[in-house]
UniProtKB/TrEMBL annotation:
Residues 203-340 form the Glycosyl transferase family domain. Pfam families: Glycos_transf_1 (PF00534). GO terms for molecular function: glycosyltransferase activity. It comes from Hoeflea phototrophica (strain DSM 17068 / NCIMB 14078 / DFL-43). Transmembrane segments: none annotated. InterPro entries: Glyco_trans_1 (IPR001296), Glycosyltransferase_grp1 (IPR050194). Gene3D superfamilies: Glycogen Phosphorylase B. The keyword Transferase applies. The keyword Transferase applies. Keywords: Transferase. This is Glycosyltransferase. PANTHER family: SULFOQUINOVOSYL TRANSFERASE SQD2.
Length: 367
């Protein structure tokens, strides 16, 4: 089929690396892998931090211009069969897709829609209403976590949903070794350094490392950069400098190579929708230490591919890290199971098949 792909928060072509951009790119690749024609039809970004009237009016003016531009193109070229909107939510609603789907009779689909009922009133109400309209219009809303699906169905009872578990392309992890050849003392994290949940996770990680036994041997490699880099590094100032290796931003292949040479992946995961980095770490044969919070249990199997500790419990989190540092057998067993979990259940090929089946059914329902 011919698919118009649109991501109102961050286009697959956006210059800034993030999990959101990575998932958008993988969805495009998965669709193309199954033989579909995929067009990223717009770079229009509807994201706004300001819910005020001026911001809303300015966004609507830009929306009309973009709808007119695309309509003109489709008037002289072949129009698509389906509109695929990735990750609309109240700060970045799909303001163009529903209009174009109506005008051209397209099947409308969303993936990873997020709906917070608390935004139904207050300053974000207009924006939220657009998200709800998309959920109601969609032939199917593809959810990546059961948590998200439950949220959509409780807020919009007649919303049609289907599950596509978070996945990654494991090609970069095809060749080992996988964390088994060195002593189990090299910890690693991969995350942007920005305000909010990421900074909260860095804060918790620093405090947990400070509580490790003084005589325990370990080091931490940190991959990532961002606007809070200086403040993030200060969080770890209570630890010996030679324990932390700040590596900055790395390419996807460099990240894969560094993960494969580490021993365990440590990231608390405050507020994580799910976290593709967890799947990448597991594909590299690393056990994960995270919190049992938000969407993390969707990508880490507690006691099988890693250890999930109670939310906010820094002592428990520190103890879990200490356990893996002090028990190479446990670390290796969990690491092998983690790799098998990703290869067998969260592979690109499996996800592409599932996605193809969901969209084929959605198109059939429309026709």
């Amino acid at each position: 089929m011919d698919i118009a792909f649109y991501a109102p928060l961050k286009s697959p072509n956006h210059p800034v690396t993030s999990g959101d951009r990575l998932m958008a790119r993988m969805l495009v690749r998965a669709l193309e892998h199954k033989g579909h024609k995929v067009r990223v039809v717009s770079e229009f970004r509807s994201f706004s931090k300001d819910p005020g009237t001026d911001a809303w009016n300015a966004l609507n003016a830009s929306t009309q211009s973009e709808v007119s531009r695309i309509s003109a193109l489709w008037g002289t070229d072949s129009q698509p069969d389906l509109w695929f909107c990735y990750h609309p939510y109240y700060k970045a609603p799909d303001l163009i897709g529903t209009k174009l789907a109506d005008a051209f009779g397209l099947t409308y689909v969303t993936a990873e829609s997020s709906y917070a009922a608390k935004r139904d009133g207050g300053p974000w109400a207009h924006w939220q209403a657009c998200v709800r309209a998309g959920l109601e219009k969609a032939a199917v809303n593809i959810c990546f976590t059961e948590r998200d699906r439950a949220g959509l169905q409780s807020a919009v009872s007649d919303a049609q949903t289907a599950m596509l578990k978070p996945f990654i392309d494991t090609e970069r992890f095809a060749i080992g070794p996988y964390g088994q050849t060195e002593p189990g003392t090299k910890l690693i994290s991969v995350a942007m350094m920005r305000d909010g949940d990421k900074f909260d996770s860095y804060t918790m990680l620093a405090k947990a490392l400070e509580r490790l036994p003084a005589d325990m041997s370990w080091s931490l490699q940190v991959i990532g950069d961002g606007p809070k880099a200086a403040e993030t590094k200060l969080l770890f100032s209570g630890l010996p400098e030679d324990r932390i290796d700040w590596l900055g931003a790395k390419s996807e292949q460099e990240v894969a190579d560094l993960l494969k040479r580490a021993s365990a992946y440590v990231w608390p995961g405050c507020g994580e929708a799910y976290g593709l980095a967890y799947l990448e770490a597991q594909a590299a044969g690393l056990p994960v230490v995270a919190q049992n919070i938000a969407g993390v249990p969707e990508v880490v199997v507690d006691g099988v591919s890693g250890m999930l500790t109670p939310p906010g419990d820094i002592d428990a989190y520190s103890a879990a890290i200490a356990h893996l540092l002090g028990d190479d057998d446990s670390r290796k067993t969990l690491g092998m199971a983690a790799r098998n979990f990703v290869l067998n259940q969260r592979s690109f090929e499996r996800a592409a098949d599932t996605l193809d089946r969901i969209l084929t059914q959605a198109l059939d329902l429309k026709s």
